[in-house]
Amino acid sequence: MQKMKKTVSMVLAGDSFITQRLPRDAKLAALKNYLERFDVRFTNFEILLHDFEVFPAPVSGGTWACARPAVLQDLQYLGFNLYTWANNHTIDWNLGGILTTKKHLDAAGVVHAGCGINLEEAAQPRYLDLPQGRVAIIGVTSTMNEWGMASNPRRDVLGRPGANVLRYQTVHKVRPKELDTLRKIVDQTEVNADRMLLEKEGFNKPLTGGYLIGKIRFEATGRGEKPGTVTTMNKKDADRIVRSIEEAKRQADFVFVSHHSHERKGMAKNRPADFCRDFAKLCIDAGASAYIGHGPHIWRGVEIYKDKPVFYSLGDFIFQNDSVERQPTEFYDLYDLGPDNTVADGLDARSANGTRGLAVDHFVFESALASFTLADGTIREVDLQPLSLGFKNGRSLRGRPELADAKYGEQILADIANLSKEYGTAIQIADGKGKIVI
What protein family is recorded (predicted)? Predict the structure, then answer.
């Protein structure tokens, strides 16, 4: 019997940091009409859902990300049917925030991946069943506080709710002579006393082949090796994710990996860290049809690896970071504000009255939807539809997505094309749209 060919169309949106409702106007309707042309509609859900009945964590992923559960209705109105939510905000409202968000996502009947009541569930592929075939999504984050990592149960201890985390190791390579100088400088102080005592008492493992200052690792360069910083994947985590991909390959027709990562190359936010590039290729090698990156709130370049698209960051789809309803005491403490101050006061202090930070970076509010058709596992081209998130609209309206006009769209696409040149990817731009031919 001849095997039936499977074809599915997919559109990818970046981070949905949605904290307020989206008015149902003509611009939103046009966006909805565009999205609903595709079978699969993906976004990374970078918010926690609750009615402030949960306790905040003492630190956050930058903002204590939260919204009333009703915001999910707007993403469903737009047609999104595939979500991940493993990211640096997953633990902003402690375990309670994870559990309430899971409750509301489950109640809405959406397919979501990347977090769960333990690591087994967080790492599990989740499936969207369509007439055209079955689509699997695996959610991963690397930017995450340690206590936001899910863990598996033992026979005698419960597992921990949290995110499916890909950890990584950072090694700073310096010349041997300079490493000796560094040791001598550190030995003149007590800066490393905690580390040394913990090693002596058996609570930390001593490092061979390098030098640790706290958790910062240094190694001497080898012959012909240049100084610099190298990041590598945690093998245990990478192996677990590969097993999830291999499982999904047997259970679904199409497999995608979503990876949230703020990690970068040096100070360049628009360039992924070394381990992200390695991980993306590992996912493709294991059987993923595409690697879907997001996290830094700006676009990063697109690479084509083994005829599969690697999106290092899709930027933002919705970014309402400056319209959160409430924040905990620790937020106000950051800016020396007191109990009588309001969220608006804190946001003014953080942005120095709108003169610094993400609110003044126009790249944060310029994005694109990426779409393609998979025919029996093959992708021939990727289309890019530019988005404007209203950079000039002021705090109350900024962050809402709309289809960009042709002139503005070509400007946005030119920036994405420039970022993609590093990876040998050419983007054709015409009439306000972009195309990558594979």
Answer: Belongs to the CapA family.
